[in-house]
Amino acid sequence: MKDELKRELASIVGSDRATDKPEHLVAYSYDAYTEEHLPELVLFPESTEEVSKIMKVAFRESVPVTPRGAGTNLAGETIPVRGGVVLCLTRMDKILSIDEQNLIAIVQPGVINMDLQKAVEKLGLMYPPDPASWAAATIGGNVATNAGGPRTLKYGVTKDYLLGLTAVLANGDVLKTGGRTIKNVTGYNLTTLLCGSEGTLAVITEITVRLVAKPRATRTIRADFQSLDDCSDAVAEIMSAGIVPAALELMARYTINAVEKAFNLGLPTDVEGILLIEVHGYPETLETEVSRIEDILRGKDVTNMITAQDDAEAERLWLARRSAGPALMRVRPNHIVEDVTVPVSQLTTMIRKALEICHNHGLEVGVFAHAGDGNLHPCIVFDRRDEDEYKRVEAACEEMVHVAMALGGTLSGEHGIGLAKAPFLSLEMDEVALRVTKGIKDLFDPTGILNPGKFV
Amino acid sequence: MKDELKRELASIVGSDRATDKPEHLVAYSYDAYTEEHLPELVLFPESTEEVSKIMKVAFRESVPVTPRGAGTNLAGETIPVRGGVVLCLTRMDKILSIDEQNLIAIVQPGVINMDLQKAVEKLGLMYPPDPASWAAATIGGNVATNAGGPRTLKYGVTKDYLLGLTAVLANGDVLKTGGRTIKNVTGYNLTTLLCGSEGTLAVITEITVRLVAKPRATRTIRADFQSLDDCSDAVAEIMSAGIVPAALELMARYTINAVEKAFNLGLPTDVEGILLIEVHGYPETLETEVSRIEDILRGKDVTNMITAQDDAEAERLWLARRSAGPALMRVRPNHIVEDVTVPVSQLTTMIRKALEICHNHGLEVGVFAHAGDGNLHPCIVFDRRDEDEYKRVEAACEEMVHVAMALGGTLSGEHGIGLAKAPFLSLEMDEVALRVTKGIKDLFDPTGILNPGKFV
Q1: Is A94 left (phi over 0), alpha (psi -120 to 50) or beta?
Q2: What are phi and psi of A352, to 5 degrees?
Q3: What tens digit of pLDDT does each residue of B157-183 get?
Q4: Residue A341 to residue B184, Cβ atoms within 8 A
Q5: Radius of gyration of chain B (CA)
Q6: Which residue of B has its CA nearest to A157?
Q7: A232 falls in which pLDDT band (50, 70, 90)?
Q8: Which pairs count as long-range contacts for B252-256, CB under 8 Å and 24+ apart, including other chains?
Q9: B304 burial class (0-12, 13-18, 19+ CB within 10 angstroms)?
Q10: What does the buried/exposed string (b/e) look like for A369-403 if buried means 16 or more CB atoms within 10 Å of the residue's CB?
Q11: Edge-to-edge strand ranges of the sheet holding B95-99
């Protein structure tokens, strides 16, 4: 990018919201995946109009634009692999309205998930999608990746709470999709098409979401298992008992040990698996559900079972699960959180296979899972500077993907395709599906300036 | 269409599954909307392969193809306005598999909604989408229109239960979308793009849906209101009490009287509105919810309240609501079921306006509503042969659409655009949205042979 062009783009937002200082460019060259690439300019727009003006110039000059929020995404979706502009939307951080009567919130894309959660909780409401990175991740990023989280099991993912979007197309045109009603069948579902499109179709600048009533009561149970098979069998039994927990989270031995080593939370280090189960509902219902779950757990090889008696105890139980990612990150310099997802009946098989594959490659792996929906996160820890080890990491990831596909699963349950899964796309999508995908990309972004070099 | 071409197309399915007899063509010239147009040929394929072969020939010869199921759709989506072929998918009526472990069913598009419901209920499961026409409507039609129904309020619409599709594109290519896992973020969401596309993008030939556990218990309450305002205020209070009923259905006076006249069910004919409320959950929870609802109702101008004591009584209460459409159909030769949808806080205003508009045009209208999600069905009854009356019907529909839009609503909550709402599309979608819509249509169907003459 020539200086003149940089100046023109910077002038749209003002010099205090534009930077090409090397130390700033480095800060926007990476996300929560392992790759990195320097952008040439970082812009911080504050309105749809500014984004539109930026895209008009970028379109005219064929400059790559990579939109991003907090960069907590795990598949390399926001790495500006072709340089150009990083469009950082974190300054668009206003909750524009919360409509308690109609259970709707309208937010800018830079609003942090946790901030929206807290704002609506004060009103007795809940915004269900809760990715692990919720304390940092933006709603815009959640929409761009169709983020899930532990509560997905009961409540569904980001797309299930989206009512409408404002988005800027590659040429600067402003597209409005959906509306304010929960039921809406007017025209093609462009809202859901943009959700999960990873910044390759448009820049999302305003988001209308639906809210739900906060559950009256929640109960949290932790169970420690001698046998991993028993642990995942318990998952299957709970699910087929017709109970839909809000969360049904599994941690395997390596992860448990990493958490215990890093944070000393008093977890047992001699068990094969821990299940964390949370149920939401009415107090009187929850007693029934908790009893039923405890009965199922008692029928398994459980060494210890804790049912939280109050919020503080529940919070302590959750802390162990929330610490899984951070703990594993400390073990070695780098980590990749895989995101293989299989039909829930294949969970045990997939966990065993993931452990076996990593073991065969001499790799260390901490497994944790949103077990109830078959969404497994084998987190491989390694040193990126060790080329041989990194090759083994890549080989293990590829093998896990093949196993997941063979078990009827998908390349990605919730982390997205980005750079991480792009090489495997043809395993899941045949020639026709890839052609349609390419056609949609060309329609929205004919010159390929939006987040180029990614999955399409 | 030349005879030779008809013969070529008929030979794909065999002469017993192809017809151009005038009496058959008439039978496929209309749906549940008021318009009609004769096709030239009706084909009944039994496999994806046959559909693909048919589309290849149609594509080569630029023959219009209008896919249809049972034709219960209400906006004219399946009327073959450009003639050509009607592709009737009712012979593809197999439930291919029900996977109890993973809560998935795979069905052909011609499976009748009720048949799927009954098949999964036997296994203790439920397929939630329940359009009023469920006893006749096909799952393929439900997907093509993204059908809702009374239970939408708690459970969501058809798109919320779709995991994957097989669909044949205009050129005969077979597109597979989605998969078998609930979480799936691989590529753009083509499954939801096809859902609600009303046969304009592809012919759906196989459908993977997710199932849920059947609720442990259900309770049904009917309340009769002296005042329509009190009736819709009760809706708002129930919703904001954090209760999510499975259904919250409203019938206004004209509808009540029509039902009573047609079927003699013992409904009060002197009330302004009836609410039918159904809650699903655990027996012990439902008592709490029923008490809370009864308390809210007692605070209103309710003349009578019935809480069903058993399934048979609940079924009798539901019969009144299910009879609304059939009863109104008998009043005059024709009817149009409008589908205006507004944020739920605007429900009372919208009902009042709808009644006022129809009254001003000297029209008879029976209002019923999926009140909990602001989805209103003013059913205008008239005689299509009376040109003056029909003009007034059209004027009233147009006015209701404008009011709904002004109240923050949508053109269609669940019935679709088809022919009925096509003239109003630009009220909800601006130039950019319409251009993107047209672009998607051109991508999937470059020569415009799939259900031509409809909303795109």
Answers
A1: beta
A2: -55, -45
A3: 999 999 999 999 999 999 999 999 989
A4: yes
A5: 22
A6: B183
A7: confident
A8: B252/B228, B252/B351, B252/B355, B252/B366, B252/B367, B252/B368, B253/B228, B254/B364, B254/B365, B254/B366, B254/B367, B255/B324, B255/B327, B255/B328, B255/B366, B255/B367, B255/B368, B255/B379, B256/B320
A9: exposed
A10: bbbbbbbbbbbbbbeeeeeebbebbeebbebbbeb
A11: B95-99, B104-107, B203-210, B162-168, B174-178
Residue B351, classed as helix, strand or coil, is helix
Q: B83-110 pLDDT, tens per residue?
A: 999 999 999 999 999 999 899 999 999 9
Report which of B4, B27, B165, B134 is spatially closest to residue B88, judged by C-alpha positions.
Answer: B27
- pTM of model > 0.90: yes
* Type of residue numbered A423: P
A346 and A409 in contact (C-beta within 8 Å)?
Answer: yes
Q: Do B284 and A281 touch (CB under 8 A)?
A: no
Taking each continuous run of H as one helix and of E as one strand, the counts in chain A are: 16, 18
Q: Classify the phi-psi angles of A13: left when phi > 0, otherwise alpha if psi is within -120 to 50, otherwise beta.
A: alpha
The Cα–Cα gap between B111 and B389 comes to 38
* Shortest alpha-carbon distance between residue B152 and chain A (Å): 9
In degrees, rounded to 5, the angle at the alpha carbon of residue A116 between the alpha carbons of residues A106 and A249 is: 125
Cβ distance of B187 and A429 shorter than 8 Å: yes
Do the Cβ atoms of A214 and B242 come within 8 Å? yes
Residue B409 φ/ψ, nearest 5 degrees: -95, -165
Interface probe with A: pick from B183, B286, B441, most Cβ of A within 10 Å: B183
Bridge partners, residue A208, by sequence: A106, A164
Contacts of residue B104 in chain A, CB cutoff 8 Å?
Answer: 343
The number of C-beta contacts closer than 8 angstroms across A and B is: 245
User: Tokens 């005038």 correspond to what residue?
Assistant: B22
What residues have CB less than 8 Å from A243, skipping those under 6 apart?
A279, A289, A292, A293
Query: With contact defined as beta carbons under 8 Å apart, do B92 and B49 qualify?
Result: no
Contact state of B186 with A444 under an 8 Å Cβ cutoff: no
Helix/strand/coil for A67: strand
Which residue in A240, A375, A417 is closest to B101 by CB distance?
Answer: A240
pLDDT score for A286: 87
DSSP A147: -
pLDDT mean by block of 10 residues, chain B; 456 residues: 97 98 98 96 98 98 98 97 98 97 96 98 96 95 96 95 98 97 95 98 98 93 95 87 90 96 96 96 85 95 95 94 93 94 92 96 97 95 96 97 96 95 96 98 98 91
Angstrom distance (rounded) from CA A57 to CA A65: 11
CB B444 within 8 A of CB B450: yes
Burial B67-102 (b: 16+ CB within 10 A, else e): bbbbbbbbbbbbbbbbbbbbbbbbbbbeeeebbeeb
Q: Which phi and psi (to 5°) does residue B204 adopt?
A: -80, 125
User: What element of type H or E holds A380?
Assistant: strand A375-382
Q: Quick count: other Cβ atoms within 10 Å of Cβ A237?
A: 17
Min Cα distance B432 → chain A (Å) is 6
Tokens, residue B325: 């459409």
Q: In chain B, whose CA is at the least distance from the CA of A186? A: B412
Which of A48, A102, A183, A189 to mutate against chain B (most B CBs within 10 Å)? A183
ipTM of the complex: 0.95
Measured distance CA(A209)–CA(A98) in Å, rounded: 10
Q: Do B184 and A344 touch (CB under 8 A)?
A: no
Q: Which of A288, A273, A148 is nearest to A219 (CA)?
A: A288
Which of A182, A412, A444 is the mutation pick for testing B, counting most B CBs within 10 A? A182
* H helix runs in A122-157, sequence order: 139-145, 152-155
Flag if A413 and B145 touch (Cβ within 8 Å).
no
Q: What is the residue whose two structure tokens read 């930077």?
A: A19
Interface contact A102-B345, CB threshold 8 A: yes
